Amino acid sequence: MATLASRGSGRLGSELHVTLWAYRAACLCMLLYITAMESSGRTLLRQRYSVFDRHETTVDFGRGEAICADAIIYGYDLIFEHWGMWRQMFWLGVPTEQDPSDFQVIQEMLWDQQPDVVIELGTNTGGGALAMASVMHLIEQATQGSPEHKRMRIITIDPRDFHDPAFPGDSCTPEKPCKRPDTNPLWDKYVTFIQGVPPEAAIVERVRGLLKKWNATTVLVSEDSSHAHGDVLSNMRAYQEFVTVGSYLLVQDTKLTRMWKAGGCSEGEKSIADIDACYREGRVGPLDAVEDFLKEQPEGTWQKDKSREYLAYTQHADGWLKRLK
User: Which of 16, 40, 191, 245 is the one with CA 20 to 30 A from 133?
Assistant: First the structure.
């Protein structure tokens, strides 16, 4: 969950007025709280814009208590943010700020694809790249001597150097100190760091040159930058050409679009129609960038691969884009 900007600036702030229990009482598929649901149009709208797979499934607890899956999944997502769980995620001593269930799926994707190169847009602390390097190392060992064996690499790009003392913010404490990713030998073996803004022409050309040098035939791109709509869309446009057919353009933290709109679209006294229009027409965060990107693409080029969301909870819902042609 690396970012090009300070993670704190892109997280839930005091302006995001989301009450878990009010949301719980407003879920579309709830059985017990119909009266509360009918009296709360704003929280109802938030559920309407869920993109979790099977989000309307009803979970029956018995004793006359039931709730829809979205309230459980999104409620956990809010807790993940409010409790700062992302600050607690480390890989070999390096902060990753990556949800472990999503990284489990990323590991599976790396095994399935066995890409020659992963292009990571947004290095942040370097923990995400180091974690992927660890998986690549295991894959190379597992396929040693087989036709599937290949040399795998990561290109990770960020405007800021991961050596910057401002990184990784408050993830590191005297009680839990952090290590730099390049102190691990896997970093030098698998990772190439490029400092720069990903869509700038010189950076794109450098990446193109490395892919040619390494004769890369399978390439996967992970967009994990500032999460701002414009940045994400620019990165997707610039790096889509490198994603090979059958591989993925993974757009991380699509969850933030819903969270940011929950606050921004509900500010002040607004009618339900105004809030609805704000959700539909506002262009905020990674998920809206995904939708805008797909509208630009020829039909049948990309598929939202919901099979990668089998754990139900993912911070990248609708962001697992598989290239079909």
Answer: 245
